[in-house]
Automatic annotation (TrEMBL):
Species lineage: Eukaryota, Metazoa, Ecdysozoa, Arthropoda, Hexapoda
GO BP annotations, alphabetical order: RNA processing
Designated name of the protein: RNase III domain-containing protein
Gene3D superfamilies assigned: Ribonuclease III domain (1.10.1520.10)
Residues of the RNase III domain: 1-88
Length: 107
């Protein structure tokens, strides 16, 4: 859904009109690094832990402030997916939430 939102946004704002142009532009927005940065910008990284979920004493902070873990992109994608699910798969409502709450972190 995030892919579709980004492609629609690019299509409306830029001159990218061919499928190849849209795909290339989308890749710069929706990739693991960009989504990982979104996890940091939104503050979700404060809640990320690595380790055995059944052993709370083993959980370590997931980020040392330097190199972003690959899991950060996955975290942001999971939250976006949960938002869509919570909105009963209503893409219009989803677009409104992404536009008003998340787009500034992605852009």
């Amino acid at each position: 859904a995030l892919d579709l939102f980004v492609v629609e946004k690019i299509f409306r704002r830029s001159g990218a009109k061919t499928p190849c142009d849209l795909h290339a532009a989308k890749r710069s927005y929706v990739n693991n690094t960009t989504l990982g940065v979104c996890t940091v910008r939104t503050g979700l990284c404060r809640y990320a832990r690595l380790g055995d979920p059944l052993d709370p004493g083993c959980a370590l902070p997931a980020w040392d402030g330097r190199r972003l873990p690959k899991s950060f992109g996955d975290i942001f994608e999971a939250v976006v997916g949960a938002i869509l699910c919570d909105l009963d798969w209503d893409f219009e409502k989803f677009s409104q939430v992404v536009e008003s709450r998340l787009w500034r972190h992605i852009e």
